[in-house]
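FAQ: What does the model actually see?

It sees only this:
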Amino acid sequence: MSNQPIGVFDSGLGGLTAVKQLREIMPHENIIYFGDTGRVPYGNRSVETIKRYASQDARFLLSKNVKMVIAACGTVSSTATELGEELPVPYINVIAPTAKAAVEATKNGRIGVIGTRATISAGAYKKEIEKLDAGIRVFQKDCPLFVPIVEEGFFGTDDPIASLTVERYLGILKEQKVDTIILGCTHYPILKPVIGEYVGPDVKLIDSGKETARFAASILAEKSLLNDSEQPGECGFFVSDRTESFSRIATIFLRSNIGENVSRVDIHNY
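And it is asked to produce this:
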């Protein structure tokens, strides 16, 4: 057993959806979260830049003595595929557990994948799904405006910006009659009500944060690294830019107030 924290990183705020799921599934675990708010978004960067950023993010978490590193970022998971080889602790990303859940959920064998440009260009979800079941058809769509929309707070079902953007991006998936859609960026579950309203109740939406949290719990149990404390776990939050806006939006993501429990770090030092 281990009371060391779980380390989670993302390009910005989206990974907080994974933190929320981790806290629900493993309430006794301590968590260190790093959001690279000073360099968000990663989705429009080159592969080389994304890999460099991911390595720095992971090294920062290791400096906090974490027992596991989770890349709660679809872009990093899709492009920095060798990151785990650099780390001395278990490393997981969002691709494999999310693809598995989608394959298990589909009934008509038509799965949609939405993500950043880098995630869709890498095609990691498509490759993983086809590895699991070569008969499934995968339809991909990049949605670059979803991240800034979420981070600006435009995600209510009554928000015309969110509704029009979802309709513009997902119309093609609706035409292809997919019955399952992977929300391939951890920002996207915040838009789940708007997306669900547009695609309808018969389309299953797969939350990458939730599936990754479940997978993390199984790996920690397998390696006897779960925290055996009966006390609620604590969370520490770190960002690479201003802390004020992070605290405000994090409250929306986590459905709880984190107060002043957030610090700024110079990620260039790692």
